[in-house]
């Protein structure tokens, strides 16, 4: 009998295992033209999976109410799915279960990954049909949600890294935040303060804990993270200039770089305690700085050299390709509504993220917004210079290699340049093994 | 026991053998039906995921693409040729050894200290056990604050003695100790409690007899208490070993495996591979390797300690 039970167990296991082998079908290709009828008003309900934090819920509820007024036949159910990593896990599970939401957020760095797997609906046919004014969007922000020449989504909550500076202090010292790399050393010498060889006030800080902050430094110095043939650019001298400079500025005591968990808190606190003159941080927390600082806070775009760019962060809004046909038309309308110029300023003001349309900047609403938040002006003067991050499905894994090299520089004082060269092959292996 | 009905029908082989076989079948089906609900749950939540992981470990699935390609042992190959694999194993074992040893040693020390029934001691025991009730997530958040280098409690405390603040969480040498601190703080209460129950089951006669023979407290501990506690110790050793090997939550909240991989224990690496880097296939291969490591080491512990464990009665 023991034997029989064992046999049953094995049989059961075999059946289950077989189920998994056969259970995986192939993904279907996106259709050339949208199937749905844009004028159909049959009631339909769609789910919107999101990662909007508590502070953004007021804005989201407002938008959903407005949407309901415009399209009474469409009901949108917002479902909070936790932070981006949680949302991604749940999306993967939903795809495996073949029961996906019609619309979802996606964090900008994993767009390539999900799009590569065919999980997102190519929105290009909808855009063509409804003649969406793509020129009105910031070019870089749109690009961040395109992959292989297909537009998979639109920027929704957009941030970028900016230099937040202590305006009161810099005015007192009579210095301007550097606009080019050439101006940095002069700026450093005026702002850095030392006591017995130890820095008591750093000129500026660049976060070391996330490559998002220094990827633009790499390209601004004339280098490339990812070349066109999907290899890393660290074998070229231009791609090492950022590291050479960072090392030099750390060694002369003017640059503070944080690494590891809690480093963000530390940097924030040091800036508020006036131990750092200027910090590179996300535009999404400019408000936090303004509200907590005892001094005037200014914002400047990242200093440039060969070029002057910063990278997009935050999340976009996309349609899942596995959504039911009758939901797709509604999903498209919702996506279009959420990212339209009409509500752009209201949405940006409520969430603390950036407007995405050019036309709104000169509107009456836009003027009021900039009067309220003059700090955001620096970003809009460089509106088209907010670009996509390096796009490759293996980017998160590959980037952890050079992030750790930066960590070695920060924590152990090592020279990053030879390490970057030595690890080029390793990073290329990660990229090709995908 | 369960075979009894079958045995009863055995003598009537010649005439009623067909009937007996069908009856045996019914009996076995009945047995099975009793076990079925449990088997079903185990099957769905334990065996199926395990077998599925085994299957995925031979594919290049990345969770975001619906297709899986069979790639044989490539995932395993790449893992064992990655230096990080050995570093992660070393970190996991170092953490486990320190965590198990310190939790057991401190737990035993506390059990010996508090093995007295007085109101004050009861109160102290409760106090020490309390952290066990606190969820790991909350405990980790609290310790994150304690170890913060700017406004953390610990740096404030050592500042009183004129010491410079230490970057506990962002220093590769100290980060692992912050994880150990949470785990030990949370775990000693439970260990103490189990040791206490173990201590109280040791017959007092042994102590009386040995003290008549002139043994002091230390010798009593070495030759009576410790050997007779060995079943308790073994139980705690194995349960603590398994849970330490699987350390995850504290890492996820306090260090993210860093800085510079210095706290990247195996389960966190699995998580990172699967959900950050989307290498589900390789992560599954790591799961299988990890599963085998735990099984083998648990078996080794049980075999090694079998001879040394004294079961009372």
UniProtKB/TrEMBL annotation, chain B:
Mention one GO biological process in which this protein takes part, according to its record: transmembrane transport
GO cellular component annotations of the record: plasma membrane
UniProt KW ATP-binding keyword = no
Just give the chief location class.
membrane
Q: Which Gene3D superfamilies match?
A: MalF N-terminal region-like, MetI-like
Protein's cellular compartments = Cell membrane
Membrane-crossing residues?
32-58, 93-116, 128-147, 175-197, 218-242, 283-304
In this protein, which residues make up the domain named ABC transmembrane type-1?
Answer: 89-301
Its record classes its membrane topology as: Multi-pass membrane protein
Cite the CDD domains for this sequence: TM_PBP2
Keywords for the protein's UniProt record, in alphabetical order: Cell membrane, Membrane, Transmembrane, Transmembrane helix, Transport
The entry assigns this protein to a family as follows: Belongs to the binding-protein-dependent transport system permease family.
Q: What name goes with this protein?
A: Sugar ABC transporter permease
Q: Which organism is it from?
A: Paenibacillus lemnae
């Amino acid at each position: 009998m023991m034997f029989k039970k064992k046999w049953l167990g094995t049989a059961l296991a075999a059946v289950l295992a077989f189920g998994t082998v056969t259970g995986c079908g192939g993904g279907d290709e996106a259709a050339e033209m949208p199937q749905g009828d844009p004028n159909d008003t049959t009631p339909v309900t769609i789910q919107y999976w999101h990662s909007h934090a508590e502070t953004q819920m007021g804005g989201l509820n407002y938008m959903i109410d407005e949407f309901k007024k415009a399209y009474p036949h469409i009901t949108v159910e917002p479902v909070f799915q936790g932070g981006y990593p949680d949302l991604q896990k749940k999306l993967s599970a939903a795809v495996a279960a073949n029961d996906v939401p019609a619309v979802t957020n996606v964090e900008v760095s994993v767009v390539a990954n999900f799009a590569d797997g065919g999980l997102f609906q190519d929105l290009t046919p909808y855009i063509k049909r409804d003649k969406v004014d793509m020129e009105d969007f910031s070019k870089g922000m749109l690009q961040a949600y395109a992959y292989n020449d297909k537009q998979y989504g639109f920027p929704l909550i957009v941030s970028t890294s900016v230099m937040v500076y202590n305006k009161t202090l810099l005015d007192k010292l009579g210095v301007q935040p550097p606009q080019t790399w050439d101006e940095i050393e002069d700026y450093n010498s005026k702002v850095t303060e030392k006591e017995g060889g130890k820095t008591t006030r750093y000129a500026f800080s660049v976060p070391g804990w996330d490559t998002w902050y220094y990827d633009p430094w790499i390209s601004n110095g004339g280098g490339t993270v990812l070349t066109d043939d999907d290899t890393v650019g660290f074998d070229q001298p231009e791609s090492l200039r950022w590291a050479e400079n960072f090392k030099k500025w750390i060694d002369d005591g003017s640059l503070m770089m944080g690494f590891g968990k809690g480093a963000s808190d530390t940097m924030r606190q040091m800036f508020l305690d006036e131990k750092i003159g200027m910090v590179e941080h996300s535009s999404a927390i400019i408000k936090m700085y303004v509200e907590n600082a005892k001094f005037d806070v200014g914002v400047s775009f990242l200093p440039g050299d060969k070029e002057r760019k910063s990278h997009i962060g935050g999340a976009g809004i996309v349609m899942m390709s596995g959504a039911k046909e009758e939901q797709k038309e509604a999903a498209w309308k919702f996506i279009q509504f959420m990212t339209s110029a009409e509500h752009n300023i209201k949405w940006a003001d409520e969430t603390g993220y950036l407007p995405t349309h050019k036309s709104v900047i000169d509107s009456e609403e836009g003027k009021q917004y900039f009067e309220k938040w003059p700090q955001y002006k620096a970003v809009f003067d460089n509106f088209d210079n907010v670009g996509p991050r390096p796009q490759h499905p293996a980017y998160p894994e590959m980037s952890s290699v050079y992030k750790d090299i930066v960590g070695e520089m920060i924590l152990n004082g090592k020279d990053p340049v030879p390490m970057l060269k030595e690890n080029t092959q390793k990073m290329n292996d990660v990229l090709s093994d995908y | 026991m369960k075979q009894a009905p079958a045995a009863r029908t055995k003598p009537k082989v010649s005439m009623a053998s067909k009937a007996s076989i069908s009856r045996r079948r019914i009996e076995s089906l009945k047995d099975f039906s009793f076990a079925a609900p449990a088997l079903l749950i185990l099957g769905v939540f334990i065996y199926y995921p395990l077998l599925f992981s085994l299957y995925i470990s031979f594919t290049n699935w990345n969770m975001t693409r619906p297709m899986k390609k069979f790639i044989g042992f490539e995932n395993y190959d790449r893992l064992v040729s990655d230096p990080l694999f050995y570093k992660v194993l070393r970190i996991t074992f170092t953490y486990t050894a320190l965590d198990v040893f310190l939790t057991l040693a401190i737990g035993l020390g506390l059990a010996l200290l508090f093995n007295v029934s007085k109101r004050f001691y009861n109160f102290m025991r409760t106090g020490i056990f309390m952290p066990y009730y606190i969820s790991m997530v909350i405990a980790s958040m609290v310790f994150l604050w304690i170890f913060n280098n700017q406004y953390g409690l610990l740096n404030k405390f050592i500042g009183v003695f004129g010491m410079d603040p230490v970057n506990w969480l962002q220093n590769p040498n100290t980060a692992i100790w912050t994880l150990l601190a949470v785990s030990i703080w949370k775990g000693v209460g439970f260990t103490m409690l189990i040791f206490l129950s173990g201590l109280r089951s040791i017959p007092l006669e042994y102590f009386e007899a040995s003290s008549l023979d002139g043994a002091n407290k230390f010798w009593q501990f070495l030759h009576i208490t410790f050997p007779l506690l060995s079943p308790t110790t073994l139980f705690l050793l194995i349960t603590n070993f398994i849970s330490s090997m699987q350390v995850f939550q504290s890492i996820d909240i306090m260090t993210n495996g860093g800085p510079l991989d210095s706290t990247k224990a195996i389960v966190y690496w699995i998580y990172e591979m699967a959900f950050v880097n989307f290498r589900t296939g390789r992560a599954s291969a790591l799961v299988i390797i990890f599963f085998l490591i735990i099984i083998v080491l648990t078996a080794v512990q049980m075999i090694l300690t079998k001879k040394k464990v004294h079961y009372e009665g």
